Amino acid sequence: MRQKRGVVVVGAVTIFAIFTVLLLVTFSALSFVLARTDADRADRAAQTTAAYYAADAAAWERVDEAAALLADDPASAAQRFTGGQLVLADGRATVTLQTPVCDALTLYSEVELLLQDGYVASMHTVRWQCAPAQE
Predict the structure, then answer these.
(1) pTM of the predicted model as reported, rounded to 2 decimal places
(2) pLDDT tens digit string along 115-130?
(3) Which of 69, 88, 97, 103 is least surrounded by Cβ atoms within 10 Å, i.e. has the fewest?
(4) What is the C-alpha to C-alpha distance for residues 69 and 119, in angstroms, rounded to an integer?
(5) DSSP output for 18-77
(6) Are 107 and 129 a contacting pair, CB within 8 Å?
């Protein structure tokens, strides 16, 4: 006599194997999509970080330029300074800058320079903040 149980067992094993393969394919596709998304996010973060450091260096160059103008001729430094604001008051100069980082971010910086005998004696960073660009 033939046993029908063997057919049912083989059919259940086949269905289980197909289900397992489908699960593995689904999870591997999901893992691939998530890995690609994470890689894209990491690339954007690296580009934004590089742009921030470039803006940071440009802002410090502008502060150094303001300090050089102040050392050369403090009386006309504010008129000769371009690309930001230079305000002289009570032996101090305040440099205010807005340096674009990327389309969405701007580096807002304010540095106070203490003047002594026509030279910049010290610098104090009042504000150095990366924030969404204001239009």
Answers:
(1) 0.74
(2) 888 778 889 999 999 9
(3) 103
(4) 10
(5) HHHHHHHHHHHHHHHHHHHHHHHHHHHHHHHHHHHHHHHHHHHHHHHHHHHHHHH-HHHH
(6) yes
